[in-house]
Amino acid sequence: MGEMIKFIRASGMGNLFNETTSQAQFKTLRFYPDVALYRLTNFATLPAFSLEYLGNGRDFVYLDGSEEPIYRVNQHIKPNITEETISDYLDFYFRHVSTADGETSLADEYGESTTLEKLLHSGAAKLTRDPEGGYYQVMAPVNFAGAMVHGVIRVGDDGRVDIRDNGLLLGSGDPADMNESRGSYLD
Amino acid sequence: METGSSPFGNLHDAFEQPELNRRAGFYKHPDEARLLYEMKDTLSQSDTGARLLQLVNDQGIKIHVVKGTVTQSFVDGIDISITAAPGMDLPEVSQVLELGGAIREVEQYLVGFIVDNSMDPLTRANMTHAKFLDKIVFMCKIGSELEKELGNLPIKAIEAFGFGDIYQAYLSEAGQESAKDVYIKTFSEPLEERE
Questions:
Q1: Helix (H, G, I), strand (E, B) or coil at B148
Q2: ipTM of this model?
Q3: Contact between A34 and B8 using a beta-carbon 8 Å cutoff
Q4: β-pairing, A169-170 with B62-67?
Q5: Searching chain B, which residue's CA lies closest to the CA of residue A53?
Q6: What integer pLDDT is reported at residue A23 of this predicted model?
Q7: Cβ-based interface (< 8 Å): residues of A facing B
Q8: What's the rounded Cα separation, in Å, for the pair B171 and A142?
Q9: Closest-CA residue to B26 (of A174, A21, A51, A25)
Q10: Mean pLDDT over each residue of chain A, to the nearest integer
Q11: Which residues lie across from A139 on neighbouring strands?
């Protein structure tokens, strides 16, 4: 934990944590064989204050709520996106990326946040692979800005995520592709 | 491949010194000035908030807006860090209340209501909870004072924090004493029963 606090101190935020009252936890990620998720929590005050990082135990990248730090890590450490790991990757992505309109997540039939694995199991989501395009496509219900929409999510082999619904585009995909997939998973 | 003490790979090579330097300002929210202006503007519409903002000016309290996904704040002496989603350029009511609570935490510090790590664990726990309850009560106070301007948004924000019962108790005739009882009940429950 000392190394982590030292690193954060070097980036100008050392006052948030100290070794006496803070705790560091890490969790391995199936889609990043060389990188783990770190959570640093300061229990000195209530409620406890936590920040999360991607790191290797020595270097850390702050997950600031935007896509940027995840994509920056992906440029250097290619994520292992497969049929087996895509559910974990999307779960990780939704937990750590939020927009000005709030958090986005996959939704079950009650509108509660859920995982792709559960939606695939219940038949509420469809997963396909475009080997030429180099991406997986997920069609599933998505919570966005407090509303449930029919989401079309593309996850590239490079870890980039594009989320689209009826006419609304989040990410940098091509809007021209929207019509072909709109609502098709419910047919 | 150099891994140092890391059980994982060589991220260090991927983030050489220039990258590290770029990260120096990485936490700071790009719209910090505007967000702070708006937060203070809303906070000043409550009497309690206006008094706390006067304290910010009088004591030179520094407020930093840090990028983050969850609304939270951290107080270190007279320094406050408060989080906001990266794409956000207008604050939510929850952030206004959080800022009010954080300034109250600084006020606690300034009057000497400080938890010291050398205290015995029971005293430390008691003081930590007393400080937290005091912060929540101030957030409720600001929320109730803002209802006239913002309708039910403050109560919704307070409920989202998980302080809805404490807010109702605060509004009751018993006021702060009743809020204390609800606080003890709320934070005595296992986490899963609070949700």
A1: helix
A2: 0.75
A3: yes
A4: unpaired
A5: B68
A6: 86
A7: 3, 10-13, 15-16, 20-21, 33-36, 42, 44-47, 49-51, 55-59, 61-66, 73, 75-77, 95-100, 102-103
A8: 37
A9: A51
A10: 82
A11: A126, A152
Is the separation of the CB atoms in A144 and A168 below 8 Å? yes
Q: Look up residue B19 and give its two tokens.
A: 């990258």
Chain segment B18-45, per-residue pLDDT in tens: 454 455 467 889 999 999 999 999 999 9
Name the residue type at position A47. P
Which residue would you say has higher pLDDT here, A146 or A173? A146
Structure tokens at A187: 């047919």
Distance CA A118, CA A39 (A): 25
pLDDT digits (tens, 9 = 90+) for B43-93: 999 999 999 999 999 999 999 999 988 889 999 899 999 999 888 889 999
The rounded distance, in Å, linking the Cα atoms of A118 and B129 is 39
State the pLDDT at residue B142. Answer: 96
Candidates B4, B14, B69; nearest CB to A96: B69
Q: What are phi and psi of A164, to 5 degrees?
A: -130, 150
Spatial separation of the C-alpha atoms in residues A145 and A100, rounded to whole Å: 9
Q: How far is CA B42 from CA A134, B92, B159, in A?
A: 48, 10, 19
**Do A77 and B117 count as a contact with CB atoms less than 8 A apart?**
no
State yes or no: pLDDT of A117 exceeds 90: yes
Length of chain A: 187
The 3-class SS string of chain A reads CHHHHHHHHHCCCHHHCCCCCEEEEEEEECCEEEEEEEEEEECCCCCCEEEEEEECCCCEEECCECCHHHHHHHHHCCCCCCCCCHHHHHHHHHHHEEECCEEEEEECCCCCECCHHHHHHHCCCEEEEECCCCEEEEEEEEEECCEEEEEEEEEECCCCEEEECCCCEECCCCHHHHHHHCCHHHC
| pLDDT over 70 (residue B171) | yes
DSSP class of B28: B
Of the two residues B195 and A129, the one the predictor is more confident about is A129
How far apart CA A136 and CA A129 sit, in angstroms, is: 4
| Conformation bin of residue B119: beta by default, left when phi > 0, alpha when psi is -120 to 50 | beta
Q: Which of B3, B62, B74 to mutate against chain A (most A CBs within 10 Å)?
A: B74
Tell me how crowded residue B25 is: count the other CB atoms within 10 A of its CB: 10
Q: At what angle do helices B47-59 and B93-110 cross, to 10 degrees?
A: 50
